[in-house]
Amino acid sequence: MANANLTNNIKAKHTFLCIPGYITSLYKKAYMNHRYFNRFDSDFFAYLSTFGNYGRLSTSLLNEIDSGDSVLQVGNSYGVLIKQIAEKVGENGFLEIIDVLPVQTNNARLKLSPWPFFKATAADAEFFKGSKYDVIVCYFLLHELPDAKKSRVIKNLLSLLTPHGKIVFIDYHHPHKFNIFKYLLIALNRLIEPFAESLMTKDIKEFIPKDSKYIWTVKPYFGGLYQKTIVKRKKGV
């Protein structure tokens, strides 16, 4: 009953939040239907959906976070990643999860229940104006956004960094031409992830105007199928 009341309070508090139409048309079952997303929210599915690379990718992400950091994760993520980030940040740091879907925000809040001093907020990453963060995490978020939305989200997130902060993107990348998983993923994404393919042909930095204030570094994984891209401000700028 307590969880049901919590969910109702969250929905009432965030009724003003406009959920983009592409989410309700493409991701309603996966992210808005409890029966479906409760099945997907597991480490097994996280490994399955990344061809067994979940451990490598999540570890690579966690290596970018230090104890005591102020961290923003954009979008709820399946599996134990949220808990791992919370443990890494520790009581001397801060973690906030935002998601455009209140039902996913509630899911993240339940995962954060051992850390009541952290928070989950229903918000659109394009418009969110929170604090300033040392690390902003985008874990398989961009591929679900239309390209114009990608650009606006990246631009807004850059404005939320501390002077020494960084954004860490984990997502699809440019697979090598001999990577056999490339063709399977392209075929699958054309059916269920129509905004993903642009990440396989463009670097993330190409979605925003070129800006000399920032440094971008890219590390590919699994034959180029995945990437860890980090962007941070140049020192003294």
Structure description:
This protein is α/β, with parallel strands linked by helices and 237 residues long. The chain has a single domain (2-233), classed as Vaccinia Virus protein VP39 (Rossmann fold, 3-Layer(aba) Sandwich), CATH 3.40.50.150. 38% of the residues lie in helices and 21% in strands. It contains 10 helices and 7 strands. It has helices spanning 2-13, 21-26, 28-32, 34-40, 43-49, 54-62, 81-89, 102-111, 147-158, 180-192; strands at residues 70-74, 94-99, 119-122, 133-139, 161-172, 214-221, 226-233. Strands 3-2-1-4-5-7-6 form a 7-stranded mixed β-sheet, covered by helices on one side. β2 (94-99), α8 (102-111) and β3 form a beta-alpha-beta unit. α1 crosses α8 (102-111). It is globular. It starts with a helix and ends with a strand. Mean pLDDT is 89; it is low at 1-15.
Spatial separation of the terminal alpha carbons: 51 Å
- Which regions have little confidence, pLDDT < 50, spanning 5+ residues? 1-15
Rg: 17 Å
DSSP strand count = 7
CATH topology grouping: Rossmann fold
Q: Mean pLDDT across all residues, rounded? A: 89
Strand content: 15-25%
In spatial order, strands of the major sheet run: 3-2-1-4-5-7-6
Q: How would you classify the helix and strand content by structural class?
A: alpha/beta
Q: Given the structure, what is the number of helices?
A: 10
CATH top-level class: Alpha Beta
CATH 2nd-level architecture: 3-Layer(aba) Sandwich
> How many structural domains does the protein architecture include?
1
Order of helices and strands: HHHHHHEHEHEEHEHEE
Helix residue percentage: 25-40%
Shape: globular
Question: Main beta sheet: strand number and arrangement?
Answer: 7 strands, mixed
CATH homolog superfamily: Vaccinia Virus protein VP39
